[in-house]
Amino acid sequence: MANHIVLFEPLMPANTGNIARTCAGTNTELHLIEPLGFSTDDKYMKRAGLDYWDKVKITYHPNLPAFLETIPENGELYIVSKFASKAYTEADYTNTEKEHYFLFGKETTGLPEMFMRQNPEKCIRIPQNDEHIRALNLSNTAAIVVYEALRQQGFPNLETTHTYENDKLK
């Protein structure tokens, strides 16, 4: 079983770098659907988490259809969108036989509208006040969703307690 964060045409290097850091800390795989709005060699990527990228399994996909073809038979796709009617906490991520893919849209325009209309049953959302903001920050949203999946899975292969006695930074 594995969790996967999938970014559709990400534009902001800081968001992608922060998500890479979350992936490194949670053993989550990262998928980037091109085109990207930046170079992964960008100096902003270095500030936002590029130094963790050697700890992250990253797969690049040339477009959305190419990514969709890579989802295995035991894969479950979740489309994270403010236009969903189902909360992310209502989904069951506990099936250890499945690969869980969390697909996030581009920061400015989200995912293609036709794709969203064709897959409403796969859509999940984080509750928010739509009157005050257009959307939550992408990197925050990715962290919220992946940590809910990990919580339901019992935080596999992650340290859930830490004491100063075993601190590696001493």
From TrEMBL:
Keywords: Cytoplasm, Methyltransferase, S-adenosyl-L-methionine, Transferase, tRNA processing. GO terms for biological process: wobble position ribose methylation. It catalyses: 5-carboxymethylaminomethyluridine(34) in tRNA(Leu) + S-adenosyl-L-methionine = 5-carboxymethylaminomethyl-2'-O-methyluridine(34) in tRNA(Leu) + S-adenosyl-L-homocysteine + H(+); cytidine(34) in tRNA + S-adenosyl-L-methionine = 2'-O-methylcytidine(34) in tRNA + S-adenosyl-L-homocysteine + H(+). GO terms for cellular component: cytoplasm. Residues 4-147 form the tRNA/rRNA methyltransferase SpoU type domain. Its EC number is 2.1.1.207. It is found in: Cytoplasm. CDD domains: SpoU-like_TrmL. GO terms for molecular function: identical protein binding; RNA binding; tRNA (5-carboxymethylaminomethyluridine(34)-2'-O)-methyltransferase activity; tRNA (cytidine(34)-2'-O)-methyltransferase activity. It is an enzyme of class 2 (transferase). S-adenosyl-L-methionine binds at V80, G105, I126. Could methylate the ribose at the nucleotide 34 wobble position in tRNA. Belongs to the class IV-like SAM-binding methyltransferase superfamily. RNA methyltransferase TrmH family. TrmL subfamily. NCBIfam families: tRNA_yibK_trmL (TIGR00185). This is Putative tRNA (cytidine(34)-2'-O)-methyltransferase. It comes from Ligilactobacillus salivarius DSM 20555 = ATCC 11741. The lineage of its organism: Bacteria, Bacillati, Bacillota, Bacilli, Lactobacillales.
